[in-house]
Amino acid sequence: MLLLSKILLKMAKGLWLWIIAILGLKILALAGIALFSQTLSGFLGSMAEGPLSPDLLSAATGQAAGQALLGALMVLGGELLIGEAEYRCTARARLSLRKRIFSKILLLDVGSIEKIGMSQAVAAAVDGIESMQIYYSRYLPGLFYCLVSPVYLFFRLRDSSFGAAVFLLVVSIFLFPANNLFKKIVKGSKTVLVWDSFRELTGYYLESLRGLSTLKLFNQDERREKNLRDRAGNFNRHLMGMIHSNFVSFLFSDGIIYLSVFLSVVFVCTQLSRGAAALGDAVMVLMLGYGFFASVRQLMFSTHQALTGIAAAEALSGILDIDTARPRIGLNGGSAAADTFAGIRLEGVSYTYPGRDSGVRDLTMDIPRGTVCALAGPSGSGKTTLASLLLRFFDPVEGRIVIEGVPYAAQSPEELREKIALVPQQVGIFSGTIAENLRIACPGASDGELREVLDLVRLGDWLPPEGLETQVGDAGDKLSGGQKQKLGIARVLLRKAPYIVFDEATSGVDADSERDIWACIAELSLSRTLIIISHRLSTIRNADTIWVLAGGRIVESGNHRELLGNRNVYYRLVQEQAVLEGRDALETGPVKAEVL
Q1: Nearest alpha carbon to residue 553 among 398, 345, 361
Q2: What is the pLDDT of residue 326?
Q3: Is the pLDDT assigned to residue 587 strictly greater than 60?
Q4: Do residues 36 and 283 make contact, with C-beta atoms less than 8 angstroms apart?
Q5: In sequence order, which residues have a C-beta less than 8 Å from that of residue 232 and are 6 or more positions away?
Q6: 147 partner at 20 to 30 Å CA-CA among 248, 373, 388, 498?
Q7: How many CA atoms lie within 13 A of 251 on its CB side?
Q8: What are phi and psi of 288, to 5 degrees?
Q9: Averaged pLDDT, 15-36
Q10: What's the CA gap between 531 and 375, in Å, rounded?
Q11: What is the pLDDT of residues 218-240, one digit of tens each?
Q12: Residue 558's beta-bridge partner residues?
């Protein structure tokens, strides 16, 4: 009934002082109103009792004016400071909540991000927090104020008309739970639907923006627009339904409020006509009667946003409750004992994506330090999953991984990623300068170091006149696909990790960029341990070891000639690709020198 959300209260750390300050300022303003009303009613009452001498009239007028001015200043100061305190509380809540959700998202692994969906994360972190902050700056202070103000006014009014004070207090106490009970019904039937439809609309809109060129290419933009309008209409219907319910609630509450104030005025006027009450007492009831319900009306205005904030918090809690803790010792019963193998060793490693059959099963393999290892296999065979396991984007459900003699589970993801770097199929480029994008890997790198890694990836000669301060645009839209990929490799080189995973690093780039990238990989093979995933098998045929996966399992391993001699999965893959490329499947050449 009181809309006390455990989730939001749990996240209120650092905001309670502001909430208490807002409550205190509201009480200060209420005290000013009571003082002003008491002064005015007392002055009018004294005037009605009979004429005063000029001296007494002057003194009474001066005293009343002073007290009324003090009351007015208390109200003015309180209202001004309430606005400032609400702003500060809102800013603090927005900063705290966004920092918390973004920090949590950064800790999530790939599997968790796929589970919650990017649109849900965006809606919760942006629009959801906008609703949640109102809960702290207006609803909670208003709720406490709504409990305090009727009691305070009762004690200020009881000497003027005890009967009217009791009546107004009882009605105000009844009105509060009645209104909140109605809001609880609204929350269960309307607010969740509003938030869900809004989240669906946001996700569909973001997806449409990302795929706009594809939609236009296939002449589906008009159909997409219609679907977007339907979702917007669905959100609008749910929103209007909740607004209508709130409007009915306002009519119900306002009807009780104004009827109660009217009855209290009738009651005190009846007393006045019988001589049982003074004029000053009647004026006091008239001026403070509505004040019993002002706090309830203020709370009603913020309740709608509070309900939306609670719905957003429930969606947000699904992200915040994800367990991101990674065990440092003993993964799934695995031993934390040291291993003398110089390289990466996997023993019976398995992982399955939640709700899907794909993944890897019972992988056992050794990747010696200083070698070039390649992963081959058809799409969906588990190559990228294996790379993600090595980077600890998620942990295996079974098995054991040892890196440089240290168990995988005995290292934090941060420690692990100092040793293993990844060049993904699509490199993430951020708005800003080339230097800023490179220093993501090494914030303290000098300009000389940045230029060195750019030379290694054949970007040094390309630099525009602005040099390292060249703006790359939003998500790198001022760069070509090949330049983005090279910049990503340069960033990895700056990390100086001894192990580098290339996951389809040359797919989607032009031929010249592909040659440059493979030339860079060939140089790196002389000083780093490389794990290469490539759809072009001709580029990995001189790898020291090729591991072939199918159905998430290792089906064979060896070098290029050994695997061709087996005439198994790898042989069939090479044959199929040779047909597509119009060459002999057994063609060999100086690939080690040119590529690896």
Answers
A1: 361
A2: 53
A3: no
A4: no
A5: 201
A6: 248
A7: 6
A8: -100, -10
A9: 91
A10: 7
A11: 777 788 888 888 988 888 888 78
A12: 546
Predicted TM-score of the model (pTM)? 0.59
On whether the CB atoms of residues 310 and 8 are closer than 8 A, the answer is yes
DSSP category for residue 536? -
- Which of the residue ranges 202-216, 277-291, 359-373, 582-596 would you say has the lowest mean pLDDT? 582-596
Taking the C-alpha atoms of residue 447 and residue 451, their distance in angstroms, rounded to an integer, is 6
* Cα 248 from chain centroid (whole Å): 34
- Structural domains of the chain, ranges and CATH numbers in brackets: 6-320 (1.20.1560.10), 331-594 (3.40.50.300)
By C-alpha distance, which of 254, 240, 238 is closest to 300?
A: 254
**Tokens of residue 483, six digits:** 């330049």
Distances (CA, A) of 301 to 133, 389, 526: 15, 50, 69
The dihedrals phi and psi of 540, each to the nearest 5 degrees, come to: -115, 10
**pLDDT band at residue 339 under the 50/70/90 scheme:** low
Q: Name residues whose C-beta falls within 8 Å of residue 373's C-beta, 6 or more positions apart in sequence.
A: 367, 529, 530, 531, 532, 543, 544, 545, 546, 547
What's the DSSP call for residue 410?
G
Which strands form 553-558's sheet, in the order they lie side by side? 420-423, 499-503, 529-533, 372-376, 545-550, 553-558
DSSP 118-186: HHHHHHIIIIIHHHHHHIIIIIHHHHHHHHHHHHHHHHHHTTT-HHHHHHHHHHHHHHHHHHHHHHHHH
DSSP state of 471: B
DSSP 474: G
Helix, strand, coil percentages, rounded to 5, for the chain: 65, 10, 25
Please state, in angstroms and rounded to a whole number, the distance separating the CA atoms of residues 45 and 261. Answer: 21
Model confidence over 519-578: pLDDT tens digits? 888 888 888 889 988 877 877 888 899 999 988 889 999 998 888 888 888 888 888 877
Q: Which spans in 274-364 are helix H? A: 279-288, 291-320
Four-point Cα dihedral 228, 229, 233, 234, nearest 10: -30
